[in-house]
Amino acid sequence: MDEREQVPDSDNPSGSSGARVEAAQDQIAASKAVRQMFSNIAPRYDLLNHVLSLNVDRYWWWRTARRFRSILRRSDASVLDLCCGTGDMTLALFRQAGSGGACIVGADFAHPMLCRAARKSAGLPLHWVEADALEMPFADARFDLVTSAFGFRNLANYDAGLREIRRVLTAGGEVAILDFGEPKGLLGKIYRYYFRCVLPAIGTVLSGVKGPYAYLPASVARFPQPQEMLSRMKTAGFGEVNYTPYTFGISGVYWGKK
Question: Is pTM, for the whole model, over 0.85?
Answer without folding.
Answer: yes
